[in-house]
Design a protein that fits this description.
This protein is mainly beta. The chain has helices at residues 101-111, 114-119, 142-152, 170-173, 377-386, and strands at 3-8, 14-19, 27-29, 33-38, 44-51, 54-62, 71-75, 83-88, 91-96, 124-126, 132-135, 185-190, 217-219, 233-238, 244-250, 254-255, 258-259, 268-272, 277-281, 287-292, 300-304, 313-318, 327-331, 338-341, 354-356, 362-364, 403-405, 409-414. Strands 13-18-15-20-21-22-27 form a seven-stranded mixed beta sheet, with no helix packed on it. The radius of gyration is 23 Å and the shape is globular.
């Protein structure tokens, strides 16, 4: 009997309407939790996210259908209020859905003319600041279909597809492509990036976070000698010309090669004067990141100090959620491994690649997208040219050096 795994990556409980399984009873998935539903072979149904009682994005599944294959898709025909994806377990090539649908919707709405917004009145619902909170049913608003196709065509069901003698839209018809045999289904919901997060043990610190807030901080002590510290942690260096406070974010959950994004609970912060350094002790369970301040876009040093497969520290530099300056990460066990970069890539960056952060600082925008906006291709192109995927994660995937230190301690320097 196949199973349906529903993961809620958001920071709040998420209710889902269930059709076809669970005796058609709704389920509420706690934040950063995975719930499981059993599904009889050859059964069909839908899992629909609810937002304030309104139906939104939905995952549709038929197990062991024509030719012995599963048929899975994501549909936004009845609305949207969050992001959702679906795939067969262990097979990312079968993934359907736009993992950043709401971010792309908000970006398109901000760019829309007043005429377009007037046409879409009653189908797009905003908060008091004018940001999109929810989208109504596409099927009830013909103008809405064209608007959604401008940013999500080919990623999700938008129209009705081929049905009742109508040829439908080819992009929608393609959503009906068969998966590979019959397997468990993995549904991922998020207010941020709904891409499932599975990684090898040495990359369990890799995740996609969005927004953060302040916590109690620790003043740095005098410069140290590395050999004085035998426990796990980070040798933190401020190589910039001004004082800075650095924040450490532990993942919401760790284990089995997965990582849950931490939006709002930094573990600690450390203040360093210009050209100062300190050792930051961390629990052996730490898997997450350190960054300048609490805002994004920002450069991230991602790491863990005690991987489950070899009990070594592993880390990398990531520009996926933006860049506010250079950073490096290095081993401290004598193996002389270094990742990241030291050159200034902000000063001469093209305007289209940049973003003015809420603190007034010019930074490079996110290459993967977040709650602010969708992926910035100009930033990705510039970073590929000036840094390259080998030195830092720019567009996810592979090809970035894994910096390993057998003594469970890494050196992180911000420039």
């Amino acid at each position: 009997m196949p199973e349906i795994f529903i993961t809620n990556k958001s920071g709040h409980p998420q209710e889902f309407e269930v059709h076809g399984w669970n005796n058609n009873h709704n389920i509420s998935v706690p934040p950063h939790h995975t719930s499981t539903l059993s599904a009889p072979d050859k059964s069909s149904g839908a899992i629909i996210a609810l937002h304030g009682g309104h139906e939104g994005e939905q995952a549709e599944i038929t197990f062991n259908g024509f030719g012995g294959n599963d048929f899975i898709d994501i549909s936004n025909i009845v609305g949207a209020g969050g992001n959702i994806t679906i795939q067969q377990q262990g097979d990312p090539s079968t993934r359907k859905g736009d993992p950043l649908f709401m971010q792309n919707l908000r970006a398109a709405w901000r760019k829309a003319s007043q005429h377009t917004k007037d046409e879409l009145k009653g189908s797009i619902f905003t908060d008091k600041h004018g940001d999109v909170e929810r989208m109504g049913p596409i099927k009830d608003h013909p103008k809405l279909e064209a608007f959604v196709r401008s940013f999500a065509d080919g990623k999700t069901y938008i129209g009705i597809g081929a049905w009742g003698g109508s040829p439908g839209n080819q992009s929608d018809n393609n959503q009906s492509a068969a998966a590979h045999g019959t397997k468990n289904s993995v549904i991922t919901y998020s207010d941020g990036d709904a891409t499932p997060e599975h990684a090898p043990a040495h990359q369990a610190h890799r995740f996609a976070a969005q927004q953060v807030k302040l916590v109690e901080h620790v003043e740095a002590k005098a410069p140290h000698k590395p050999e004085e510290h035998k426990g796990p942690g980070i040798d933190l260096l401020n190589k910039s010309g001004k004082p800075c406070t650095y924040f450490f974010y532990d993942n919401y959950w760790n284990g089995n090669g997965t990582a849950g994004a931490n939006f709002d609970h930094p573990l600690k912060s450390v203040h360093l004067a210009s050209h100062a350094s300190t050792f930051v002790p961390l629990p052996a369970t730490f898997k997450g990141r350190v960054q300048r301040g609490t805002l994004i876009p920002a450069t991230w040093a991602e790491f863990q100090v005690d991987a489950s497969n070899d009990h070594a520290a592993h880390g990398d530099i990531s520009l996926e959620q933006g860049c506010d300056g250079a950073a490096t990460i290095a081993s401290t066990d004598g193996s002389h491994q270094v990742g990241g970069f030291t050159n200034d890539i902000l000063t001469h960056a093209p305007e289209k690649a940049c973003y003015k952060r809420q603190d007034g600082v010019k930074v490079l925008a996110s290459t993967m997208g977040n709650w602010i906006a969708g992926p910035n291709e100009a930033a990705a192109e510039w970073e590929m040219k000036e840094v390259g995927q080998k030195k830092a994660y720019i567009k996810g995937g592979t090809g970035t050096d894994d910096i390993r230190s057998t003594n469970r301690r890494l050196e992180v320097a911000f420039y």
